[in-house]
Amino acid sequence: MLERKKKLFWTALTLLYLMFIYSNSMRTAPESAIQSRGFLRLIEKLFPFMIYNLGLTEHILRKTAHYGEYLVLGVLLAQVIKTYGFLRMRQFWTVLISGFLMAAGDEGIQLFTEGRSGQFSDVMLDLCGVITGLSVWRLVKFLKKIT
After folding, report:
1. Region class of 116: left (phi > 0), else alpha (psi between -120 and 50), else beta
2. Three-class SS string for 68-122?
3. Is it the case that residue 53 has pLDDT exceeding 90?
4. What is the rounded (10 degree) CA torsion for 123, 125, 131, 135?
5. Is the Cα dihedral 16, 18, 24, 25 positive or negative?
6. Rounded distance between C-alpha atoms, residue 31 and residue 47, angstroms
């Protein structure tokens, strides 16, 4: 019964998170720009050196958000796949293919959203986030074993 609850919990959490990602893609270009500028202003107040010394722009912020969203998704996907008992190599390929399809779906949504466009480069950036998330997940699991 506990295993079933774990599967349900991690699956539901991952699906809810994916809905969050997709809901961001459904924002029109003006809505998305307002949100990005708001985050940029917040970062400017909290960490002014990031804007002035590092040249953080709205474009860089958006790309970093893409990567970060999918890094978290990679961690969640890895955990979901593990709870279903996939073997190690099958875990890797399942997370990789699932992450790619989810990123492609995300960009597909943007093709039908006012003022937005789907970009293959964003799918690849998202996939890099998924791979990083999977790597972080595996590193944490490894460190837990050796300590």
Report:
1. beta
2. HHHHHHHHHHHHHHHHCCCCHHHHHHHHHHHHHHHHHHHHHHHHCCCCCCCCHHH
3. no
4. -160
5. negative
6. 24
* Helices 58-83 & 2-25 angle (0-180, nearest 10): 160
Nearest to residue 119, comparing CAs of 18, 30, 25? 25
> What pTM was computed for the model?
0.91
- C-beta of residue 109 within 8 angstroms of C-beta of residue 25: yes
How confident is the model over 96-116, as pLDDT tens digits? 999 999 999 999 999 999 999
User: Given pLDDT bands bounded at 50, 70 and 90, which one contains residue 51?
Assistant: low
- 């990602």: which residue's tokens? 21
Q: Are 110 and 52 in contact (CB under 8 A)?
A: no
User: How does pLDDT run across 63-94, given as a tens digit for each residue?
Assistant: 999 999 999 999 999 999 999 998 888 999 99
